[in-house]
Design brief:
Elements (H helix, E strand, L loop, with lengths): L2 E5 L4 H12 L4 H13 L21 E7 L5 E7 L5 H8 L7 E3 H10 L10 H17 L10 E6 L5 E7 L20 E4 L3 E7 L1 H4 L4 H10 L4 H20 L5 E7 L4 E5 L4 E7 L5 E8 L2 E6 L2 H12 L5
Parallel strand pairs: 3-4
Antiparallel strand pairs: 1-5, 1-11, 2-3, 2-6, 5-6, 7-8, 8-9, 9-10, 11-12, 12-13
Helix pairs in contact: 1-2, 2-3, 7-8
Organism: Clostridium sartagoforme AAU1
GO molecular function: hydrolase activity, acting on carbon-nitrogen (but not peptide) bonds, in linear amides
Protein name: Glycosylasparaginase
């Protein structure tokens, strides 16, 4: 059995491409890197890679992480600029025994030394989004901090190896140097091939407060189904944050165990995810929270058409 699950509709083409690798007996690491690169390279997804939304100084700072569930090898980059595929840099770092998490200038020097592709990641479209947001903040007194749709994935290959990965441009209009949960092992992602893996998207500052990806894998290690594990972890953290702090930021998690069974939970409306397992084509779902239980419904063609239409629409400044 092999399979992949990922946050958001934007990952569908990526995991479909990754599935082709898995069908041929390829490894989970190659499949997940290929899948995430597909998202990073698509200019109309404004929360990951090229075209990602910039920080308050109109710079695109990217975060990414990679974890091997067989060896627990980890690699991550944070606040890296001007490199095309941070997931590939993170995977490369997972081969290092030490110095496997690098940030800013150090991450950039490492990537340059190893010959990773340099690229100006600030697209004209992202600049337009930035100018529009600055104007809205001034005129309507809106909060600038919106947009934190990390692509997070868990992959299982036919040999039983599991891998998890993330990539994001982070919070729109974030302060220079801000890092969220995505490159933080245990929060943005975690995987153990003997159990399963999980990956998060949402408000990193709150996701990190629960080490939530690790918590889901821990629950699965006790025999809890991935769906129930996601529900327990998300509901618990959501309730705890509201009790302690009066509110909770966006929390959305996807998980898959080493049998190819999967689960999803969220505290927001309109969360979408994509999944592909052996014997089935890629499917895109919308999940709804009904009194702490989650119902996953296949996205309609109308919803899918509107999704792409919205993301590719001209920006009116």
């Amino acid at each position: 059995m092999w399979g992949m699950i990922a946050t958001w509709r934007m990952a569908a083409e990526g995991i479909t491409k990754g599935a082709e690798i898995l069908k041929k007996g390829g490894c989970a690491g190659d499949a997940i890197e290929s899948a995430i690169k597909e998202v990073e390279d698509f200019p109309y997804y404004k929360s990951v890679g090229y075209g990602g939304l910039p920080n308050e100084e109109m710079e695109v700072e990217l975060d990414a992480a990679y974890m091997d569930g067989d060896t627990f090898d980890i690699g991550a980059v944070a606040a890296i600029k001007d490199f095309a595929n941070p997931i590939s840099i993170a995977r490369s770092l997972s081969n290092e025994k030490v110095n496997c998490v690098l940030v800013g200038e150090g991450a950039e020097k490492y990537a340059h030394k190893l010959g990773f592709e340099r690229k100006n990641m600030l697209s004209d479209r992202a600049k337009a989004h930035y100018r529009k947001r600055v104007k809205e903040v001034k005129e309507q007194e809106l909060k600038p901090y919106i947009g934190h749709d990390t692509v997070g994935m868990v992959c299982l290959d036919a040999s039983g190896k599991m891998v998890s990965g993330t990539s994001t441009s982070g919070l729109f209009m974030k302060r220079k140097g801000r890092v969220g949960d995505s490159p933080i092992i245990g929060s943005g992602l975690y995987v153990d091939s003997e159990v399963g893996g999980a990956s998060a998207t949402g408000l990193g500052e709150d996701l990190m407060k629960g080490c939530i990806s690790y918590e889901i894998v821990r629950l699965m290690s006790e025999g809890v189904h991935p769906q129930r594990a996601c529900e327990l972890a998300v509901n618990k953290l959501n309730e705890k944050l509201k009790k302690r702090r009066g509110e909770a930021g966006d929390l959305s998690l996807v998980a898959m165990n080493n049998k190819g069974e999967w689960g999803v939970a969220t505290n927001i409306e309109g969360f979408s995810f994509a999944v592909v397992v052996e014997g089935k084509d890629t499917e895109i779902y919308l999940t709804e929270n009904i009194n702490g239980k989650f119902v996953h419904k296949l996205a309609t063609q109308e919803w899918l058409d509107n999704y792409m239409k919205t993301r590719m629409a001209p920006i009116e400044e």
